[in-house]
Amino acid sequence: MVSWSRILNPSLLLVPQSVYQDVSTPQQASVEQYNVIKYLGGSAPYIQREGYGISTNFPNTCSIEQVQMISRHGERFPSKGDGVAFEKVLTKFQNYGEFKGDLSFLNTYQYFVTDSDYYEKETSPENSKGPYAGTTNAFRHGVYFANRYKDLFNGETLPVFTSNSGRCFQTANFFARGLLGDDYDDDDGDGAGGADGAGGADGAGGGTKIKYVVIDEDPKMGANSLTPRYACKNLENNANLDLIASYDKTYLQDILTRWQVDNPSLDLTLDEVSSLFLWCAFELNVRGQSPFCLLFTNDEFIKSGYRNDIVNYYQIGQGNNLSTTVGSPMVEASLKLLQEESDTKTWLFFTHDTDMEFYLSSMGLINPESDIPVDHVPFPNPYNAAEQFPQLQEHIWKVYCGGQKYIRFIMNDAVVPFPGCSSGPAFMCALDEFVSIVSDRMSKVSFQEQCNASGPLQLTFFWDYKQQEYNAPLIDQ
User: Fold this and answer.
1) Active site (annotated) includes residue 117
2) Transmembrane ranges (predicted)?
3) Which of 79, 132, 206, 405 is most exposed by smallest CB count within 10 Å?
4) Domain that residue 255 falls in
């Protein structure tokens, strides 16, 4: 049994290593609750979801018939918008003078984004120095996926569906390279969308090749998209701001007041103070550690993390009245794939965390029993975005057991039973029952009418990618 202290980077802990001395049985201590990534809203490196003790292996009496995997991109640099905000704060720091106390590290601090061209990009060994390179983690996940599911795709051309976001495609590409290893080959020899995805062998190891199906993020794609939110004209990007604004943010003033004891002329807005939590997250992606992560107390991380959860829930999750509608095209396509008998047993699609959240919320997998509160932090937290949407993936299995078909969800390496449907083997949900539950949800929404959407009204690329060319140019977002 490997102890937590050996497998968890100490720089991720909100407590010192002396925590082991503060429990009656140090050899049985767990520090998982103190992992700072749990409180950074999904912007920091990958973290395994907290599970229920259910093995990710399927029973010996069962066989996997199909697997669907939806993944966001891997660890990345800040967006261009966040970069502008960070640089504004950085200028204030640089113009301040000599810092004292907790902020004294700023006297010699070097900004973690060394080239503005890195904004929006995936982290890699070439542009970052930490242990959490997004490309490397995508490759590792591909290797892991191959070890579990290689019998489902051996000897065929395997389609890999990705939005034309540069970092989503790059994640798909490195995942595919890990998936096939030295046998990697793609169907056109140079990746897709103008990306440099060449290399690999000549189709050895069963002859499996990768075909990249690159779906445009443009609203013109309508429902035939991995980012259908862009076609939903009625979707408000800043929905429920009144609810979100009602959350108690006095902790931000407390932080600023604490810093001003040693640095009385420090002039930061509360929004700028809040942005330093995000700074901490992205610097972890790039460097593996961040002095900004040391500036806040455990309570402040918890309060900030829950504020992120409120934003996610009320703008993207079920707190937004259009969330089920926006995610419905992808959910309906998943249902159709699960009910079909197809030669393709492995379905891989790469998009953004926002689109994953719409998809899983629309399906009903991640929804709390009632709206989450905005007047206090609930314990336990029913909607932790950092655990639900970290970098990388979720799987859906279609499993055959003793003459019956079931489905199982694995979210970030932990089994998550489908709500209200877990009476099958190993807490799986009977496929016909799952289809009935989700179809009922879908019957109550209309993507075209509720979104005022134009363009295609259904997702079809899973079925027509061989006849229609999906090769959108990559974009920097």
Assistant:
1) no
2) none
3) 206
4) 80-125+241-312
